[in-house]
Amino acid sequence: MKIAMVGSGYVGLVSGACFADFGHDVVCIDKDQSKIDRLQAYVMPIYEPGLENLVRSNAEAGRLTFSNDLTASVTDCDAVFIAVGTPSRRGDGHADLSYVYAASKEIAEAIKPRTVVVTKSTVPVGTGDEVERIIAEVRPDLEFAVVSNPEFLREGAAIGDFKRPDRIVVGTEVEWARDAMRAIYRPLFLNESPLLFTSRRSSELIKYAANAFLATKITFINEMADLCERLGADVQDVSRGIGLDNRIGSKFLHAGPGYGGSCFPKDTLALLKTAQDNDTPVRIVEAVVQANDLRKRAMGRKIINALDGDVRGKKVALLGLTFKPNTDDMRDAPSIAIVQTLLDAGAVVHAHDPEGMEEAAKILPDVVMTASAYEASKDAEAVAIVTEWDAYRALDLTKLKATMRGDALLDLRNIYSAAEAEKAGFRYFSIGR
144-148 and 2-6: which strand pairing? Predict the structure, then answer.
């Protein structure tokens, strides 16, 4: 099938490359000509393991192309996916749908009859209705279908998630559109990946509900971690103990400095706004959002308290800045609030991240970026592990300690044990232990 992917960011590029790898003819479209030029030269706009090779192999095979001309690109397509950004709107927290609606209008002017228009972007319930209205207004006699097909890709593992999904959710009640989506996802369906057909509005809500539930699990175990510290319990034991219950499951029960990234903060906030607008408050999600925001600053205070409450003029080293490993994404990363708390208290912050320093420097201009974990820790009073990159899982703790002026190691991801840290001469602080 011939597929157009409108938007060549994280979702659009990964999805487009994977569809091409299935054998479909895919064009990825973006308004940014410089991004298109870089993609044609196989320079990725994001860091995602395996993506460059996937793009290169399918482009060289002729199945994947790139363009900034939406009108010309979608004319002969069987399906057009909308994968543009839906960031939180300034001022009220609602999802900004201006890019979705602008793309819909352009698509309407160029598509052929019986084209499936698919919202891949994360959008509030009812967005598909508006996309349908926009297209029908431009082309009142056109036969088309608007389908919801939310993505469930984890940054750092997106290609594997796309090719081996837990489920594929498709929201439509138009039978020929269902047939088209079955054909698009046929390679996965043959591998017995569950293909769930729902109404369009149910599909839109599934994405928000899933992310809100996972964010709740993270926030719950983080609050249990605080309780463990007060009671002398071990949150890792608690996590294992409850995670073995198959009604709960072990995933997303790892205590840390709070969630961040492109999905959870934005999607929980958008869900709150949707619920408020419909007089159906979601109190649990409200508490999750508030608790997570407070936790990030609390991690900064945890570092300050480890230095007897005074960091003015003292150097603190942070290892890991991105919101999770295997990505360069800094959106709503816990490190941002931690850095701001430290800077507000007068600390001097040096940092290292294997992939995220270029993006981090745009957001955190007052942080000194360094070439290695050991360089970051040189003459530091404290070192804090903020992101659990593999590069930090087997540090030479004795060497790390020897570079420092102080002796505080704050392991905000519980990578090390107290025994090995103390053996290297550290005062060790972890989460929930």
Answer: unpaired
pLDDT at 354: 97
94 has a pLDDT exceeding 90: no
Give residue 93's region: left, alpha or beta (phi > 0; psi -120 to 50).
left
What is the spatial distance between Cα 156 and Cα 12, in angstroms, rounded to a whole number? 15
Residue 428: enclosing H or E segment and its boundaries? strand 427-429
* Pairwise CA distance, residues 118 & 77, whole Å: 12
The closest alpha carbon to 34, from 45, 20, 49, 26, belongs to 45
CA angle 372, 373, 374 (to 5 degrees): 90
Tens digit of each residue's pLDDT (9 = 90 or more) over 302-342: 999 999 999 999 999 999 999 999 999 999 999 999 999 99
| Domain 2-198 in CATH 3.40.1050.10 | no
Q: Tell me the one-letter amino acid at 182.
A: R
Q: How far apart are alpha carbons 383 and 356 in whole angstroms? A: 18
Among the listed residues 162, 168, 192, the one whose alpha carbon sits nearest the alpha carbon of residue 26: 162
Are the CB atoms for 408 and 310 separated by under 8 Å? no
pTM score over 0.90: yes
The SS3 call for residue 414 is coil
CATH number of the domain located at residue range(s) 199-433 in this protein: 3.40.50.720
- CATH 3.40.50.720 in the chain, residues? 2-198, 199-433
φ/ψ of 170, rounded to 5, equals -130, 120
Positions marked catalytic: 263
Integer-rounded Cα radius of gyration of the chain = 23
